[in-house]
Amino acid sequence: MKVKVLSLLVPALLVAGAANAAEIYNKDGNKLDLYGKIDGLHYFSDDKSVDGDQTYMRVGVKGETQINDQLTGYGQ
Asked: pTM of the entire structure?
């Protein structure tokens, strides 16, 4: 039973993409975050239009600033 569960779990973990985020600046009410995701994909097919490397990466920046006590600005 454990072998069956493990044999299904390992490929699922390998297929799942990795997503990460990091706060790179936080001072005086200003905050800047960097985030990203990488999915490594390779398809094997007889159809040449979908065969091959389909890996992609997504990177972004989020910002936040405290304008006054009651107002906060956000950007992405």
From this structure: 0.57
